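Consortium newsletter contribution from the modelling node. Members have asked for a concrete example of what our holo predictions look like. Here is one, prepared for the nicotinamide-adenine-dinucleotide complex that several groups have been discussing at recent meetings.
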Amino acid sequence: MFKIQTLNNISPLGLERLPRGSYEVASEIGSPDAVLVRSADMHKLEIPASVKAIGRAGAGTNNIPVAAMSQRGVPVFNAPGANANAVKELVLAGLLMAARNIPQALDFVKKLDGDDHALHKQVEDGKKKFVGFELPGRTLGVIGLGAIGVKLANTAVELGMEVFGYDPAMTVQNAWKLDSRVKQALSVDDLVAKSQFISVHVPLLEATRGLINAERLKLMKKQGVILNFARAEIVDDRAVVEALAAGTLHAYVCDFPSNALKGNPRVLATPHLGASTGEAEDNCAVMVAEQIREFLEVGNVRNSVNFPEAVMPLLPGKTRLTVVNANVPNMVGQITTALAKHNLNIADLLNKSRGDIAYTLVDIDSAVGEAVVAEIAAIQGVLKLRVIAAR
Ligand SMILES: NC(=O)c1ccc[n+]([C@@H]2O[C@H](COP(=O)([O-])OP(=O)(O)OC[C@H]3O[C@@H](n4cnc5c(N)ncnc54)[C@H](O)[C@@H]3O)[C@@H](O)[C@H]2O)c1
Ligand SMILES: O=C(O)[C@H](O)COP(=O)(O)O
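And here is the predicted structure:
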């Protein structure tokens, strides 16, 4: 029986992928094998030694101590692209709200008073305060052309916008999906200088913290709009508030309210709603639950943010060893030598690496005794070892 601890509400559709006969799932559970999480901050949590994997039912993993988990030989999985459409739609809503002054207009309507005749008069007199602008011909700069950025850039092109994109590490798959009408910016500064709307879709990393700051805001076209549905720390709130006060920025649309932004009439903030649709919650939970299940039951790794992709079919009757080790020379040699010493025949072997981590799957024709397991576990550089019994 595998034990799964949930740190946030995870869609039942995803939890159903962990069959009750072999999985116990609860928010409070002793010695969990894996943790399922959304945005709960795990940095200050004590993560039990029993944890073999962490599944993020979403995209961003900045709430998870990924580097520390790598050192412990624990993969962190996420659900790439599973909530991208939900975020794209909310960004488009933000773009339109800013262009047409919709929140201010709705607020005006709420305050209307009098009989219908008086209301109509106030409407016709007042509407001139909310004159907006249309999107065709306007420029949008998308920083980060990943799952969300590509979808947004393509839709904006369809809406008639001139779209610039910047991403120094775009994947080939995303490059294939990007509309050829999206123009390449040469740098963040180049993109900022060209764009009236700027939308950030990068992960929170040291390199992206404060990506939109006072200096960059000065490069922007006058009356621009910043959209931030990535992470609060990527945009400097205080610099934004100053640019709004100076009238150089028209609006800041974001998913991350803060005290600095609160009450500012030019800030449109939603409460971290980017991925909050039934569809996205289901997609993320299903994807990550399936990945965790496959890792726990077979040792395969799909969509990990710190482990290499490692997928090898496990044939009936074979015992599988999964070994996480430092990515240094002679690890596979030492593992196979130990197996040979115990007269164990290797049926199949896969060794993959990513950065400092290497991951080896070894399928053996027979059962594996405790002595050889202890011998492999004692090899310097082995971080984690599991035996998956033959079925
Ligand atoms: N508001 C929400 O609810 C919500 C929902 C989903 C994702 N997010 C956030 O959005 C981020 C992006 O999500 P995604 O699914 O598109 O991720 P993704 O991994 O598919 O795409 C991120 C892209 O950013 C690029 N990138 C990294 N550093 C960069 C830099 N310095 N400059 C330019 N590009 C850079 C990467 O190469 C990658 O292509 C997530 O990491 C998460 O923080 C927020
Ligand atoms: O990175 C993400 O996927 C989003 O920020 C969504 O977070 P949530 O799962 O807490 O809604």
